[in-house]
């Protein structure tokens, strides 16, 4: 399975992060810098595992526990976005 941004979502990078608008529900949100970075990496075709690994390389400083926490947080973010209909899964 691969992820893609729902066709019902309009998004834009801003100085404060990423702004998302779900056209079907009317929900509007702004992602903070960390969530925005995850969103942009996913939008560029990254899968959750590779995004988590990339961020772990950037921010864990070689600490395995922190790297694992980053990967878990990326999965949690992706699950939340799927539940809210902002991201969708599709067959590879």
From TrEMBL:
<dbReference type="Pfam" id="PF05402">
    <property type="entry name" value="PqqD"/>
</dbReference>
<dbReference type="InterPro" id="IPR008792">
    <property type="entry name" value="PQQD"/>
</dbReference>
<protein>
    <recommendedName>
        <fullName>PqqD family protein</fullName>
    </recommendedName>
</protein>
């Amino acid at each position: 399975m691969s992820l893609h941004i729902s066709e019902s979502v309009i998004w834009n990078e801003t100085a404060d992060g990423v702004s998302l608008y779900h056209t079907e529900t009317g929900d509007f949100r702004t992602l903070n810098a960390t969530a925005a970075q995850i969103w942009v990496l996913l939008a560029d075709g990254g899968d959750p595992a590779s995004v988590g690994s990339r961020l772990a390389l950037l921010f864990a400083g070689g600490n395995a526990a922190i790297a694992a926490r980053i990967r878990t947080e990326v999965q949690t973010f992706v699950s939340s976005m799927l539940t809210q209909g902002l991201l969708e899964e599709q067959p590879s």
